[in-house]
Specification:
With 567 residues, this protein is α/β, with parallel strands linked by helices. 59% of the residues lie in helices and 9% in strands. The protein is built from 21 helices and seven strands.
Length: 567
């Protein structure tokens, strides 16, 4: 009987991990790269912004040349590029560069290879959350946590992003695992194991060089550990070694991050971080609640008909309220049970401290990070662990009801994952595919897209549009049954110095066009609709007239001009 239960448990864990792999690797190339993923690609390929074709016109067919792996780069070179042109620590990008090097030359499926490493880290997080809850609560709680993360639409969304979210999420989970083990050693086993402290310290050092938000998790963990050492010091027989280990760990972590400290201080004041706005009254509170709901259910809401959006929104809210009630009842039991009280206190305190840090950043630093659901990866491991543990109940009379609840959550989350991987939920910011389809409304007409840039993020945004446009035009060309030829497409990035008037002047100085008819799209971050002129002179001879019906905005405005009349 014991062996049968043992095999069933690990068979279930294997099945959960296998399901997590399938969901994370399904349709990895379906969604277009968006701005942040383009930034990942540039630095992970061993390049920087100086390698891009700026202030020149280039054909869309040459776009692939931008995203070619550059061999022979060191991690120090990648770190130098990031320190000068971005706002991120280097380790994730160094590992991504090594990963892409395994597949060089990357070929046409380079986007799948770019996103596959974060997907692997997402699978690793499933195994890590199992270990965390197994140590903190029980084997059953570990299995439920793995299941919950495997089918979490939020976790699947992060895993399919070519960004450094799943790696720090994995490291935070492992760090919490180390914290729980340290507490068990201190308060129950009354011992200090050097390898546990060393492993925990190394994980935290790696995390600091992966994502700046790991600092928030580190502050929370050390704060919780120090508070517990003070509150329960009477239960510690070997206080001196414990305090020495704590002080030594903090000192090593601080010294290890000192080389990068000037960079992070400079990054905080860079203009690339100014896109986060001040909070709107109580917005951080309800935005946080919405982020919790999205961790377990994500139905189609964005870019949907109003009726569907309302139905999906109401359904998500009702499901969130029901699940919240279930979790609160379970947490009350975990808190009152002596064998799970310490783990519940630790994980719940971590969760609360991170939330307080988020609110402090929003209200005191005036950068509302609660408005960005993906940043919730910092506290998601504790959220997942507590929700899963709260669904485990020992009262036999309620076992059937609780099992039904788990099945319901699993089914709803699984369906949500299907929406995510088929691009119906968690849509990419700036919707590159929508922009590309709009620009490609006249496929038989020659097309030029001009992006004005004030910083390199504008360039990355423009490249995301270019990649989506290339996919749309190539795709329609393959499936088209008509004999209408698909015309050429040109792209250009022009710096707006001192303002956008300089770009209109640069357009007039371009070489003569080889066609008498052209659609000109102008992407102009930072300007308003009224700032677009009625006419634009192109190549000193062609007049482009504004099409007032073809003005759009997806965070940035883009406007169509129809060119053809000779000046």
């Amino acid at each position: 009987m014991i062996n049968h239960s043992f095999y069933l448990h690990y068979l279930g864990l294997t099945g959960v991990i296998a399901l997590g792999i399938i969901l994370r690797f399904c349709n990895l190339d379906l969604k277009p790269l968006w701005m942040d993923e383009v930034i990942t690609a540039i630095f992970s390929l061993g390049k920087n912004y100086y390698d891009l074709p700026l202030d020149v016109v280039f054909p869309l067919e040459k776009l692939q040349d931008i995203f070619i792996y550059q061999p022979g780069k060191s991690c120090a070179q990648i770190a130098h590029n990031l320190a000068n042109q971005s706002t991120h620590p280097p380790l994730f990008f160094c590992w991504m560069y090594s990963w892409l090097g395994l597949f060089a030359p990357l070929g046409e499926n380079w986007i799948v290879k770019l996103r596959s490493l974060p997907a692997l880290f997402g699978v690793g997080a499933i195994a890590a959350i199992y270990c965390l809850n197994r140590l903190a609560f029980s084997k059953a709680a570990g299995l439920k946590a793995a299941m919950l993360m495997a089918v979490s639409p939020f976790a699947v969304y992060l895993s399919q992003e070519a960004r450094h979210y799943t790696l720090p999420m994995l490291l935070i989970t492992l760090s919490l695992l180390g914290l729980i083990q340290i507490q068990l050693d201190i308060f129950q086993r009354q011992q200090i194991r050097l390898w546990v402290w060393l492993s925990w310290t190394i994980i935290n050092i790696v995390g600091l060089y992966v994502h700046y938000f790991f600092i928030l998790a580190l502050i929370a963990e050390f704060g919780i550990l120090l508070v517990l050492l003070c509150l329960y010091r009477a239960n510690i027989t070997n206080q001196l070694p414990v305090w020495l280990a704590s002080i030594l760990s903090i000192s090593v972590l601080t010294l290890s991050f000192l080389p990068w400290l000037p960079v992070i201080l400079r990054d905080y004041h860079r203009p690339e971080t100014d896109w986060l706005y001040s909070p709107n009254h109580i917005a951080p509170f309800y935005q946080t609640l919405l982020n919790w709901i999205l961790m377990v259910i994500a139905l189609p809401v964005e870019r949907q008909p109003l009726a569907i959006a309302i139905l999906s929104g109401v359904s998500m809210l009702c499901f969130g309220i029901w699940l919240g009630w279930q979790v609160c009842k379970g947490l009350r039991q975990l808190w009152c049970k002596s064998t799970t009280h310490l783990a519940t206190l630790t994980l719940l305190s971590f969760f609360v401290v991170i939330l307080l840090e988020f609110f402090a950043i929003a209200y005191f630093l005036e950068k509302d990070i609660t408005a960005i659901p993906r940043y919730s990866f910092v506290y998601y491991p504790s959220f997942c662990a507590l929700v899963a543990a709260s669904l485990i109940i020992t009262k036999k009379v309620k076992l059937k009801i609780k099992n039904n609840s788990i099945i319901t959550i699993f089914f709803v989350s699984f369906i949500s994952c299907i929406f995510v991987i088929y691009n119906l939920a968690f849509l990419k910011p700036f919707t590159p595919e929508q922009v590309a389809q709009t620009m490609n409304q006249n496929p038989s007409t020659p097309l030029m897209v001009v992006v004005g840039y004030g910083n390199y993020q504008d360039v990355a945004l423009g490249l995301s549009f270019a990649l989506a446009l290339k996919t749309v035009r190539n795709g329609k060309e393959k499936v088209s049954k008509s004999h209408i030829p698909f015309s050429s497409t040109d792209f250009a990035f022009f710096q707006k110095t001192p303002d956008f008037q300089s770009i209109w002047a640069k357009l007039s100085q371009l070489p003569n066009l080889t066609t008498s008819n052209l659609n000109l799209w102008v992407v102009a971050p930072g300007i308003k609709r009224r700032d677009y002129p009625q006419q634009v002179l192109l190549s000193q001879s062609t007049v482009c007239n504004i099409d007032v019906k073809q003005h759009y905005r997806v965070g940035v405005p883009y406007q169509l001009y129809r060119c053809g009349e000779k000046f």
